[in-house]
Structures are given as structure tokens and as C-alpha cells.
Amino acid sequence: MLTVVAGPCGAGKTTWILQELAQTPTTAVYVTPGVGTVPIDATRVAARFPEVEIFHRQSEADLLQRLAAKMPIYFELGFHLEMEIPLLEALPHHRVAVCSDDSPDSGWSLWAETVIRGNRSGLNPQAAQLWRAPLRGQVFDPPSLDTFWQELSQGAYGEVHRAKGIFELADGQAFHFDFVNSLPGTAYTELKLPRWVQGRPNRFSGLEVVGHGLDEAAIAATLKDCYLSDSLLASHQAALRDSFSLEAS
Fold first, then answer.
1. Between the CA of residue 124 and those of 52, 53, 213, what are the distances in Å?
2. Domains in the chain, start-ordered, CATH in brackets?
């Protein structure tokens, strides 16, 4: 069964898919096209459900093979992508829109066979600014990152409708940050990944910001100020390894 999920920015598409995956008894596939080198949602899904196959660069032939094997497939369309995709039009699929009753409608409710109530989004997708930054290997000082995130979400770098990211912290943990301007505060979730305590993490991390009038240069510069230097990172990791050794003894 191929389920195509669409909706406005920050409506809760990935959250709904995660809920569905939690109830899926067989191995499933999650497809997220158009994310380039910043697959935040795919990384979030993979950390929560390691058994799920993640597709964001695989070929159409691979996808068709999974469909022929009758694997459940969830295909998430970003708000910035066209809903009519030739590959999907040629395949039987179920269309799900995640949107709120009072969100500006870009045709999602007419396009969908099932409409799920989601978060409100006042973003005009035609005028939206989308900025992404891959952060592989960067480790963050938590207080500096917290200050940056508060500034970002409160409008210091432009009007932010949605911001999400995966960040590596000095204690070796990876966290998912999720801000939607129609919801209170930010959701912080620790990802179920091994602690990275030796050198720079060789796994994905990154940031995505959607809004209007974003000062991309200022966002990038302030974010860079939160990075730990090689010497500070080595010091933090040495202390962590020592503490783990003491706990094990």
C-alpha cells in the first residue's frame, strides 16, 4: 500500500507518519524526496524505527520493487513540492492531507482522499524562504545553541514559521529540535543513537528554517559561533570517557 502524505509547512506530516509506523506490523518504507543533503525527517524516522527503509535518493526501480513486494510505503511530500508527481500518478495510492481547518488551503483538502487535522500554518508557500544547512561533524556547546535557538525562533533573524534540526551535543547525544510558530515553544527530543565520544560525529546533522525575510548570512554566522573547537571537543570527550570508565569499574 502506497500512502502519499502532503500538507502545509509544520502541519505535522512526519508526526502522523511516525504514529502510523508505530502501528505497522511489517517492515515499511519511508520516502522523502526533495531534501537534498539535509534529510532531517528521514533521520528522525530512522532513529525511532531502525527497521524502516529510508528512501530519499534511491531509484524509482527500487521503490517499485518494494511496492511489488507489498511493503507499506509512506511518501511524504514537502510543502514546497508539487502534489502531482508523474511516478505517483501511474501507481495506485492513497492520498492523505495533514492540515488545519483554518490554514490557507493550497488545494490539499481537494487533492486528498483523507484529511487529518494538523497544526495551523499561515505560511504562504509561494513566498516562503527555505534555508538549509548540513552540519555533519559539528558538535555544539549547549548554552550557545540554546541562545541561538531562542533568538531564531523569536524572530531575531527574520520571521520564522518553522525551524527543525538535528544537533550533536558535547555529551555525545544527538537531539531533534522542532519549532512551529503556531505551537507553544520548541519540542526537544533525544534521538536513540549511540553516544559519540571519540572524534567528530560521522553521521547526519543539519538545520532547516522556513519563513520570510530570513537573514541567512546572520543565521549561518551565529550558528558557526556555537561550534566546539577541536581542542574543546577533545577535552569534553576525554572527560566523558573517563566518567564512563569510572562507572564501569
1. 33, 32, 13
2. 2-117 (3.40.50), 129-239 (3.30.1220.10)
